[in-house]
């Protein structure tokens, strides 16, 4: 019998000028294969484009992949724009090359989780299932 549960909707994005997207595509596929609805926005997205997509797609979470070193600015702007849109309930998480010293400041901004190189797809899927609830299931 087919499950009637509402899937988690995740927008996965590559903000900024970073052009390396192999890892984010692997994460997107893992989330999709785990039964989540995944919207991958592609490369070179602005925070405004990412938030616009999250709102249009009724996303439950936004996952950012940042390898460029601009993670503090990019995560902060996405969180700021979500707050301005009264959408702070959208969980923001991400991964990439994030120095350990920046993890707590990111958490203080509202980033729910940061996955660094070496995180397994199983860890990311399990964390997402445990910390992101489908908003459409609440309606």
Would you summarize the structure shown here?
Helix content is 41%, strand content 17%. The chain is α/β, with parallel strands linked by helices. Strands 2-1-3-4-5 form a five-stranded parallel sheet, with helices on both faces.
Descriptive report:
The chain is 41% helix and 17% strand. A 5-stranded parallel sheet has the order 2-1-3-4-5, with helices on both faces. Helix 2 crosses helix 3 and helix 3 runs parallel beside helix 4. The longest helix has 14 residues. The radius of gyration is 14 Å and the shape is globular.
How many individual β-strands? Answer: 5
As a percent range, the share of strand residues is 15-25%
Structural category is alpha/beta
Q: What level of helicity do the residues show?
A: 40-55%
Topology:
Blueprint: E1 9-13, H1 22-33, E2 37-40, H2 47-56, E3 61-66, H3 71-84, E4 91-96, H4 100-109, E5 113-115, H5 121-131
Helix pairs in contact: 1-5, 2-3, 3-4
Please describe the structure with a list of short key phrases separated by commas or semicolons.
alpha/beta
């Amino acid at each position: 019998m087919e499950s009637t549960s509402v899937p988690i909707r995740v927008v996965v994005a590559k903000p900024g000028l970073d052009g390396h997207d192999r890892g984010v595509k692997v994460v997107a596929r893992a989330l999709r294969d785990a039964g989540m609805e995944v919207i991958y926005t592609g490369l070179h997205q602005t925070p405004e484009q990412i938030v616009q997509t999250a709102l249009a797609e009724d996303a439950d979470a936004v996952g950012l992949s940042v390898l460029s070193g601009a993670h503090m600015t990019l995560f902060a702007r996405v969180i700021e724009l979500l707050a301005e849109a009264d959408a702070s309930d959208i969980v923001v998480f991400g991964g990439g090359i994030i120095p350990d010293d920046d993890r707590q400041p990111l958490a203080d901004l509202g980033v729910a989780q940061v996955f660094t190189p070496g995180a397994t797809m199983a860890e990311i899927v399990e964390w997402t299932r445990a910390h992101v609830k489908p908003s459409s299931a609440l309606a």
